[in-house]
Amino acid sequence: MQSLLIIVGVGVGVAVIVFMSALLSGLQSNLIKRTLSSQAHIALLPPEEVARPQVAAENTALRLQKQAQRLRSIDQWQQLRDRLQNWPEIAALSPVASGPAFAVRGDANKAISLVGIEPERYNRVISLADRLTTGELRVGSGEAVIGIELAKDLGADVGDKLRIATADGSDETLTITGLFDLGNKAVNARNIYVGLRTAQTLLGLVGGVSNIDLALHDLDQAEALAQRITGETGLIADSWMRTNAQFVTALTSQRVSSNVIRFFVGLSVAFGIASVLVVSVIQRSKEIGILRAMGATQGQMLRIFLLQGGIVGFLGSLLGSALAWFFLALWRLMAVNPDGTPLFVIGVEPSLVFIAAGGASLVGILAALLPARRAAALDPVVAIRG
Amino acid sequence: MADPVLQLSAIRKSYGSGETESEILHGINLRLEKGEFAALIGPSGSGKSTLLNLIGLLDRPSSGQLFIDTQETGLLDDTHLTRLRGQRIGFVFQHHHLIPAFTAQENVAMPLLVARGHPDAAMFLKAGELLDQVGLADRKQYLANRLSGGQQQRVAIARALAMDPSLVLADEPTGNLDTHAADEVFKLLRTVNRQLQTTFLIVTHDPRLAKRCDRIIELVDGQIVADAPNTPDA
Ligand SMILES: Nc1ncnc2c1ncn2[C@@H]1O[C@H](COP(=O)(O)OP(=O)(O)O)[C@@H](O)[C@H]1O
Ligand SMILES: [Mg+2]
To answer: Hey, whose CA ends up nearest to atom 26 of ligand 1?
Structure first.
């Protein structure tokens, strides 16, 4: 009866941990996915030409303007591309020629980011093709794909024409072949995707690229890898973690606070198991005494109670995993957007259940340590007489 | 003469330490041969249970030597002492101390399980045979707490015999039973003694039961004051 209650107690604790972990990792991976939907894991840029002098604050805008006008290409980017392509950490890589420009249509004139891409390659870094709301990802000569916000601002749609002008006077008229929604309003309002060649011409970067975008197999490696690339090539490598430092900090502190909660839930589970076992050692002291009289060694008594703790933890974790699964199913039913689609995807990874089962068994055994030692140390004479 | 099953020489036992130290047993010498059926009598508080606990290796003497089957026990560590106890000695207590959640058969198999560490069919077979012997053939699958006091004590006797011990120690085995049940249990001990040649040392208050043993040892204030053979009346 007691064992049953404590197993339920352990189960609830494990359920909280599993549910919370699943929710959190679902939430976080969803947030990361959204953030990275319009952003490369690492962007490689040409190195600074000279050490930047300390510039007074009021000159900052001017300085940026100047830099923007003098786009530089990455030296020997083809060799670099071929070299990095062989790195096992890198999943995909896409050279990009991008720079500031203006989109003009009728009276409307918008500052935009012109992004010249090789669509197949680029699509492996940022899945643009999946994000099209209309049209297709076609950026041949004279063609462009623009964001839905920009389309709205300009009153343009697929099939309409658009004039792109740069600050140094080049311009070209392009036909809109598709509209995208990358889930980021600023990007949807700024980016215009064109063919690499088109962008090179417009931006005065003939044959060159302004940056190389990378996608990695393991997101968390981005900063480490970025530093390695900088070390080996001298290029500036901006990882998504650096460009989203605040966001990453928020994720980390979220994880830390959830670890704290997990720790304390685990602790209270451990105390629960321990207290039940202490009571059970006292209640069963006669039986322990008689087992000792029959030849059960101290080691055997110790193992019996450790095992009991482990079993309670293990069964509790099974119950807890089932409960967590139930809560998550419930959550999926409740947490939906007005249109019925899920807020975000959460799944329980089998590994989480294994970890919970292993962890709870271990906690059970640790919690049983003290009562088990008491049981082993029990004087059989006293136990039997008592 | 064959080797004794049990030999005590100059056994002393004190409890407490310093000013509160008090000696309960003052130099006990005792020898039990194979197949003996001896009663240990004496007034309450004379040290009978203390002596039995020492003989049963549940406790260690303060001084003196104790041999079980010629094995000197003073130098054994706790684990070896426990193993020796499990293998050579069976206990029957006043309160049977069965495990209530287990059946009669499981209780009897318990010492075998403890010794081997894992259950097997042979140990339940053996437990079943022992229950046949003590007259509980039809109660094997009963939970221990659903048996009467006398039946429980018979299960405890079967359990004490599970490891084929050379010595069975019984501390007031009938003290908790009515006259009829006490008589039955005592007869059972006697029968086992005759059939298996198991040595018995039985602590009892009851002079009528003591008179049915082959030898009567009397303990008073921690000393053996009388130790004589006895011819049972019946
Ligand atoms: N663990 C102990 N600590 C201190 N004194 C004890 C302990 N066990 C027994 N005694 C004392 O030893 C004496 C003998 O006890 P016991 O062997 O139980 O006697 P009997 O079984 O003959 O009635 C008693 O005075 C008892 O109080
Ligand atoms: Mg006594």
So the answer is: B45
Strand B89-92, strand A191-195: pairing: unpaired
In which residue ranges of chain A is pLDDT below 50?
51-68
* B15 Cβ closer than 6 Å to some ligand 1 atom: yes
| Distance of residue A366 Cα from the nearest chain B Cα, in angstroms | 23
In the reported structure, the alpha carbon of residue A301 is separated from the centroid of ligand 1 by a whole-number distance in angstroms of 26
Element at A173 (helix H, strand E)? strand A171-180
Q: How far is the CA of B49 from the centre of ligand 2 (A)?
A: 4
**What's the pLDDT tens digit per position in A19-65?**
888 888 888 888 888 888 888 899 999 887 654 444 444 444 444 44
Q: Using one digit for the tens of pLDDT, what is the confidence trace for A132-184?
A: 999 999 898 899 999 999 999 999 899 999 999 988 888 899 999 999 998 88
**Given an 8 Å threshold on Cβ–Cβ distance, is A296 in contact with B99?**
no
Sort out which chain B residues have CB atoms less than 8 A from A377's CB and list them.
none
Beta strand A90-105 pairing with B223-229 = unpaired
Beta bridge partners of B6: B32, B68
Comparing alpha-carbon positions, the chain A residue that sits nearest to B99 is A287
Q: What's the gap in Å between the CA of B234 and the closest CA on chain A?
A: 33
Neighbours of A308 (CB within 10 A): 22
Q: Measured between alpha carbons, how far is residue B66 from residues A303, A384, B12, B91 in Å?
A: 30, 22, 11, 18
Note the pLDDT of residue A386. Answer: 61
The verdict on a CB contact (< 8 Å) between B82 and A385 is: no
Instruction: Test B97 with A385 for CB contact under 8 angstroms.
Output: no
ipTM for the assembly = 0.88
A192 closest CA partner among A164, A157, A218 = A164
Q: Which domains does chain B have, with CATH numbers?
A: 6-15+22-229 (3.40.50.300)
The kind and range of the H/E element at A132 are strand A132-135
Residue with tokens 């059946």: B103
H or E stretch covering A204: none
Closest-CA residue of A relative to B113 is A296
Burial state string for B204-227 with b = 16 or more CB within 10 A and e = fewer than 16 = bebeebbebbbbbbbbeebebeee
Q: How many CB pairs under 8 A join A and B?
A: 52
